[in-house]
Amino acid sequence: MNARTARTAGAAALVAAQVTVLAVLFHRPPAGLFWWYAATWGLFAAAVWALRGVPGRPAGRLVLAGGLAVIATGLSGPPGTSTDPYRYVWDGRVQAAGISPYDHPPADPRLTSLRDPWLFPGCAQGHFYPIGDGACTRINRSTVHTIYPPLAEAYFLLVDRLSPGGAGLVPLQAAGALLAAAVLLILRRRGDPRWAACWGWCPAVPMEAVNNAHVDMLAVAAVVLALGVARRPLGRGALLGAAVAVKLVPAVVVPGALAGALSSRRGVRRALRTLLPAVLVVAAAYLPYVLLSRASVLGYLSGYVAEEGYDEAGARDRYGLPRLFLPDAWALPATVAILAAVLFHVLRRGDPDRPWQGALTLTGTAFLLLTPGYPWYALLVVALVALDGRWEWLGVPLAGTAAYLTTLGTPAYALAAAGVVAGLTARLRARGGQAAGTWPYRWRRGVPGRAGPPS
Questions:
Q1: Count of C-beta atoms within a 10 Å radius of residue 279
Q2: Are 196 and 165 members of one domain?
Q3: Given this model, what pLDDT does residue 438 score?
Q4: Is 325 among the domain residues?
Q5: N or C end of the chain: which has fewer CB within 10 A?
């Protein structure tokens, strides 16, 4: 066995071990789950590192086969750490009955006829009882209106229409797996295929996109198409607008993708050609629901912002990193100021030919400063890392999981921030040394529309 074959076999063995641990993880109870999950991240990191010694074509095949196997593990059990998919099923069912999902919360007695023992196991079918989360239904926040944007609601309706009766959450999980696999195929065709492993082998993908079936996966697919495939500003803007109309979180990607907009008049015009279709797509997506709904199509958005502590700097664990150094009252203004400075840098100095670079810088910084407690939001960061190649940002999704499953949220985000600084330092040093010409620092050059060298 020659050295290259041995390296390929070693990387394959690490991916196989990760698949095995993931398959066990999805049948584990929530207690102690994070440490199993952390073990899969260790195997993931080792497998990606082992790809350094695997040549291009074998690496591409291994990335594809391993990625599909990792993604498929998410189908091995019901959602383990989230109840959001139950709301998706309910919203799809309500729309199939010709009712706007924004008009009534699940607890509304006028929707009693749509209940069944699967979604409402604690309720006598056909009768209304006061519903508290977990007391009568699997749907979380069942006394408030839905929060999901219109293209997410259209997705829920489509899945409902295509699902056989009694399928439960399997259609949503299967849709998430198909979307994750499609993103893997897109990423694999860009530049060095080994960077696609940052997406396909990442444990966050089977956990959040497939097992928990989060609709964020649909938004991530739109972002990857916008930044990795679309070459014209109009198409890129339309896809970014579609991502925002699925989940509002990708709104932070849009200004980041306008890299270099303030560097010239041409940049300003290009930015406007991107922003205008994005705004129009969001408006067009909301319009039918605005016309058909009696209640606000923003749903529980304001209540969610307050509940999660984003309206007050001192609430819960939000703005965790700024609060380590500043009084609570200063954390929110400091976060806004830092994000504004990063955005100005991206708009002024960013590379317009690599919009994913500015998008990752701004999105990753926003996550580090806001310290969200839901790890599925960070699927965006995973995809942007696979587009851009700055692996140091992968600590962000792992920190989000620590915040969600443990009490170590702020320390985990602090470690993630330290990792970003360390990676940036190593990258700057590598630019002038021999490492700058080797993977993972080297990209294939001269391929139009594909990734360039990471900075």
A1: 13
A2: no
A3: 40
A4: yes
A5: N
